[in-house]
Amino acid sequence: MILAIDVGNTRIKAVVFEGDTILGSFVFEKERLQGNVQKIIADFPLVVTLVVSSVGEVEMQAFRKFENRLKVHFVSHEDVFPFVNNYGTPKTLGIDRMVLAAGATLLYPGQNRLVIDAGTCVTYDFVDEHNVYQGGAISPGLRLRYESMHHYTAKLPLLTLKSPETFIGKSTASSMHSGVVNGLVYEIDGFIEEYKAVYPKIIIILTGGDADFLAKRLKNTIFANSNFLLESLNQTFQYTINND
Question: How far, rounded to the nearest angstrom, does the alpha carbon of residue 166 sit from its chain's CA centroid?
Fold first, then answer.
């Protein structure tokens, strides 16, 4: 069994895999890393490998404490990936984006793929049908949009996510909800249309913490999978050990 973990900006997501089957899924705060990982491996004693992506130095040292119990693998730029990296600055490409691109490459062979990860930031990553990673885009996610309007203006309040009733805001709050939610929906649909104009046959994968909220508001056909990064992490690790 494999325990796959992705360390986000504020939270940690973890999934226990047996092959490609998900046996358990967990989300917890960074501050509770040690205790939660200990509980997971106690509940799943057949876990032998811990695969981790997107770690800072603090988290890396915390995960190393499990090396007496598990084989710990940190996904890095030195791993073997199933695509050619055509990014202009390949070493600056985030590991999470590389893992998403790898998952799309392995799960949808021979197709153009666009992975949209809607989290703290929204990332767009495109791998063409020849398995070449071409690049993408990064923009603020829903929470960052609310926070930036509050922090960088004098009077706008800090709101939490709410679905706008209409695109025409009738108050400051409803105008902000419309701008944040509809603005991001229009952005995502706009990006998809741009890609489809150049690559008519393209697979669109939407993932991340806000994937389910956004999916039902998009006009384009997509595959929404909030666990896609962790599934991709599992697939990437299997590919790495088979091709290293």
Answer: 29
